[in-house]
Structures are given as structure tokens and as C-alpha cells.
Amino acid sequence: MNKGIRAYAAEFIGTFILVFGGTSAILGNSLLNFGDSAGVIIPLAFGLSLVVGIFALGHISGAHFNPAVTLAFAVGRKDFSWGDVPGYLIGQLGGAALAATVLSVCFGGAEGFTTGPTTPNTINGVEVSTMAVATFEFLATFILMFVIMAVATDARVQGVPAGLAIGFTVAAMALGTGWVGGGSFNPARSFGPALVGGVWTQHWLYWVFPILGAICAVFAYDFVRGPQGASSDPVMRDPTAG
User: Fold this and answer.
1) 101, exposed or middle or buried, with CB in 10 Å at 0-12, 13-18, 19+?
2) What is Dmax (Cα atoms) for the chain?
3) 64-123, pLDDT tens digit by residue?
4) Cβ burial 131-169 (10 Å sphere, 16+ → b, else e)
């Protein structure tokens, strides 16, 4: 059964919250120079924005806010309908694009303006290799989706609210991998800033490898979990709430 327009709207709003919160921190650093603290502030902005979105909207749409997560659930879970995929993706991409548009409207004329696109970084004057970016995007998304599978689909998980577990995972992966290629592991997060900012450098990497990583994580978690922990209603719930 399709989840309907309310779920798609929730994905739009939640992805807007995620991308707006995180990319606003990137823009703030570009305009104001947070110095050494930027490496912590920006990942935390993404992670905490995701926590907010999950707590606010997880019970409505499942709080994917990420095309890789949506496609992985559709591929690997019988309880998520392929009929919902277009609505979820449109909502996610639209929310991300709106977030980048807001930044552009407010600060597009400022010197140093950026929408926060994800591109391979340069280390000692040399661009990080395609293989390195692909590997880090795959692994970071695999880890993220593995955590999501645990807190959203395993009935035995207790003690940690899903929003905190997933938000901390995003912050940790952004801290650990952002220096390679921006630490996206979310095609919508990369798409919105790229669309508005017109920066499409190696953009395909930020679609292909997050999607592959998420799909692999679904099957990996299903294997290590076994049948006894399965839930028929994957949703970003609070396991402590009973």
C-alpha cells in the first residue's frame, strides 16, 4: 500500500531541514571562517539537523531523507512499495533544491558564496582520486544504512532512540570522510547544491556509490540479523517508547 502525499511531503520537509542545516554551516564557514572548528561544526550541523528531521517526521514517512535509503528499502525490503519510490525521490530532491535556493537568494551576491556542493577534495595540490571518493561514499553509506536497518527494522533493538543513532552516524561519517570528497553519502544532499550552484564535478559518484552501499547494507544486515529480529513495519521509531 502506498504511503501517499503526506509521506512525500514529509520527505520534502525533512530533506530540506537536513540540507539547509548542513549547507548553511558550510556557507557560514565560507563567509565568516570558523577556522579549525569548522571540521566539527559542519558535520554536527548535518547530524543534528537529521536528528531533528527524524524526531519530527519519522513516524509519517520513515524519515529516509536520502534517495539511497529509499532505493535500498525498495530493493531489499518487501514492506516498502516501489510505488512510493517516485514520490519519495521527488520530495527529497525538491527539498534539497529548495534549501540550496534559499541560500542563493539570501547570500548569492556575497563574496565567497557557496551552496556547499560535494566534489573531490584537493590534497597537496592533487585532486583525490575517483576510486578514493567512490570507496568512501560506498562505505559511509553502507555504515549509515546498516545502522538504519538496526534501529528501524530490528524488533530487538532497545535503548537508543533512532534519531540519535542515525544522526550521530551521519556526524561521525562526515567527520571521518568529509576530507575526501565532501562526505555526502546522500544523492539529494549532493543534488540540491549542485543544481543551484551549477557545480557538477564528478557528480555521478555521489549517486552510484551511495546507492550501491545502501543496497549492500540491507542484505548484509538481513544476513547477520537472522529472521527472529525482523519487523513488518520499518519506521524511524524510538525503541525506548515500547
Assistant:
1) middle
2) 56
3) 999 999 999 999 877 788 999 999 999 999 999 999 999 999 999 999 999 999 999 999
4) ebbbbbbbbbbbbbbbbbbbbbbbeebeebbbbbbbbbb
Paired with 175 in beta bridges are: none
Question: Positive or negative CA dihedral for 157, 186, 38, 129?
Answer: positive
pLDDT in tens, 6-46: 999 999 999 999 999 999 999 999 999 999 899 999 999 99
* DSSP conformational letter for 195: H
Residue 195 near residue 100 (C-beta atoms within 8 A)? yes
Can you spell out the DSSP letters for 134-176? HHHHHHHHHHHHHHHHHHHHBTT--SS-HHHHHHHHHHHHHHH
Strand, coil or helix: what is 115? coil
Q: Give me 217's grid cell.
A: 547494507
Beta carbons within 8 Å of 236's beta carbon, 6+ residues apart: 54, 58, 59, 62, 63, 148, 151, 152, 162, 163, 166
In order of their start, the domains of the chain are 5-227 (1.20.1080.10)
Would you tell me the crossing angle of helices 38-61 and 162-181 to the nearest 10 degrees? Answer: 140
